[in-house]
């Protein structure tokens, strides 16, 4: 079976190459930051169970995230705020968060593997991998770290804005969140460029 593009590129690199996986979490919510993570695995220390974060339980994600911080060669986060999302749109904000995550690693990548179809504007050798979080271990690692970080962040925001239930839905447009928006209005955490939030602002 022929190698995929990303597998073929990895095969050309030395064993100690800096291969960075990047993924983001939080494009769909109506509130909060979009969070990206970058991860560089240690080829001599295999971490069992890395998979698309959406397919793991919250408890398993927490365990794996902790293991990644302890055992990976590098892990870093990047964010873009709700204000930045409103200013430049969610796609550009997601790419910005990815750029910040890789920059925060403090390492020069030999190859960056990014989940999805589009790449941030950087000069690193890079490949966009569709469904990379379920195909590429480095991207799976990044997806887990990003998911755990964003969920924790939204639970922290719940302490300040308990009426919205951020600890339960993490800002996604559930029926309970939409009802809370109608009842309590828009918080500073909400993304005003997203249609359900705009509708509340307009009084629709």
Describe this structure in words.
Helix 3 (82-88) packs across helix 4 (90-105). This protein has a five-stranded mixed beta sheet with strand order 3-2-1-4-5. The chain is of the alpha/beta class. The chain contains eight helices and five strands. It has a single domain (5-160), classed as Ribonuclease H-like superfamily/Ribonuclease H (Nucleotidyltransferase, domain 5, 2-Layer Sandwich), CATH 3.30.420.10. The model has no long low-confidence stretch (mean pLDDT 96).
The first-level CATH class name: Alpha Beta
Number of beta strands: 5
Q: Give a short account of the largest sheet.
A: 5 strands, mixed
Helix and strand composition category: alpha/beta
Query: CATH architecture, please?
Result: 2-Layer Sandwich
Name the CATH homologous superfamily: Ribonuclease H-like superfamily/Ribonuclease H
Radius of gyration over C-alpha positions, nearest whole angstrom: 18 Å
Percentage of residues in helical conformation: 40-55%
Instruction: Enumerate the spans where pLDDT stays under 50 for 5 or more consecutive residues.
Output: none
Question: Main traits of this protein?
Answer:
Nucleotidyltransferase, domain 5; 8 helices; elongated
């Amino acid at each position: 079976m022929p190698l995929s593009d990303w597998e073929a590129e990895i095969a050309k690199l030395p064993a100690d190459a800096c291969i960075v996986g990047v993924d983001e979490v939080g494009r769909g919510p109506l509130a909060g930051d979009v969070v990206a993570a970058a991860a560089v695995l240690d080829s001599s220390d295999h971490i069992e169970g890395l998979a698309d974060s959406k397919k793991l339980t919250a408890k398993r994600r927490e365990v794996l995230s902790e293991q990644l911080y302890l055992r990976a060669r590098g892990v870093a986060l990047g964010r873009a705020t709700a204000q930045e999302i409103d200013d430049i749109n969610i796609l550009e904000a997601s790419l910005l968060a990815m750029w910040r995550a890789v920059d925060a690693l403090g390492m020069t990548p030999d190859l960056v593997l990014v989940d999805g179809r589009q790449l941030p504007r950087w000069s690193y050798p890079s490949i966009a991998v569709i469904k990379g979080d379920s195909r590429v271990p480095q991207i799976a690692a990044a997806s887990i770290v990003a998911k755990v970080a964003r969920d924790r962040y939204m639970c922290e925001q719940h302490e300040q804005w308990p009426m919205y239930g951020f600890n339960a839905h993490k800002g996604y447009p559930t029926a309970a969140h939409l009802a809370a928006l109608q009842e309590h209005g828009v918080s500073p955490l909400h993304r005003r460029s997203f249609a359900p939030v705009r509708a509340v602002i307009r009084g629709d």
